[in-house]
Amino acid sequence: MNQSVTTRPIPDPLAVAELLKPITWFPPMWAFTCGVIASDVALSSHWVLILTGLLVTGPLVCASSQAVNDWFDRHVDAINEPNRPIPSGRIPGRWGLIVAVIWTVMSLIIATGLGQWGFAATVLALLLAWAYSMPPFRLKENGWLGNAACGLSYESLAWITGSAVMMGGVMPASSSIALALLYGIGAHGIMTLNDFKSVHGDRQMGVRSLPVQLGERRAAVVASWTMALPQLVVIGLLFSWQTPLHALTVSLLLGAQILMMVWFTRRPVERALFYSGFGVPIYVTGMMVSAFALRGGL
């Protein structure tokens, strides 16, 4: 007796890789590394811990957040970016959600190797990732809340975690926490840059990103000030901590960003992607310079 067998389509591995967006893993991995540097702990005897932390922050937690976001954004993406893996059908059925859950579980399992602090930070980061995209929380529907959650998670939390796990679960020095929070606040502006490409679909779907709430030009100005002001505070702190070379370096990096900000705010929708590609690397270079200012003690 013949029986028909219905096979469930399985997504192409390349489509899954695209869903997890490896290019987005860099910011939290970089921030974690900044925390490692700022901890002033010898690196040579902690390579396994460092590599585990990088794996958790980037290819696991950040990748999980990307899968979660694309699953709950699939209707908006069908308007803004229909070629993405889920709306295009390259990841069929509920596989987008399945991938998000699998990566979340793997993140929690691997994070046990980071000690209690690292595991707790991973849980918090994952909660923010799901709350950012998933109803009824869906923080991303308000640009102020969603961008704050991403900035503080990707930059501040990752930095503080990097320092804490290197120090055996001890809370980092107030100077390190201050830098982590300032760069996390500045990252709110970086997150706004990502919203310019999807203004049309966001308006249709009721997503209140800053370009939707404020208008494109005003949102660009707000994003620029949000990135610049925390760096001015960082420069002041570095001078007060008697690290003038680091302070001057961050000043020069900020100067280069300001020139680009003036250019960007004139035509933000067209130039946001360019600024993300060139201005943001300058911003995160300043993060690393600031981290090295703490190495050796204050």
Q: Which secondary structure elements does this structure contain, and how are they paired or packed?
A:
Blueprint (H helix, E strand, L loop, with lengths): L12 H8 L5 H13 L8 H26 L1 H7 L14 H17 L3 H19 L9 H24 L7 H20 L5 H7 L4 H5 L1 H25 L3 H23 L1 H26 L5
Strand percent estimate: under 5%
Number of domains: 1
The description of the largest β-sheet is:
none
Mean pLDDT: 93
Q: How many strands?
A: 0
Low-confidence stretches: 1-7
Architecture, according to CATH? Orthogonal Bundle
Topology order in helix (H) and strand (E) letters: HHHHHHHHHHHHH
- Helix amount, in percent? over 70%
CA-atom Rg in angstroms:
20 Å
Structural class: mainly alpha
From the spread of the alpha carbons, the general shape counts as globular
Number of helices: 13
CATH topology: Farnesyl Diphosphate Synthase
Main CATH class: Mainly Alpha
> End-to-end distance, in Å?
80 Å
Model description:
The chain has 298 residues and is mainly alpha-helical. Helix 2 packs across helix 7 (143-166) and helix 7 packs antiparallel against helix 8. The model is unreliable at 1-7 (pLDDT under 50). The protein contains 13 helices and no strands. The relative contact order is 0.12. It has a single domain (13-293), classed as Farnesyl Diphosphate Synthase, CATH 1.10.600. The chain starts with 12 loop residues before the first helix and ends in a 5-residue tail after the last helix.
List keywords for this structure.
298 residues, Farnesyl Diphosphate Synthase, mainly alpha
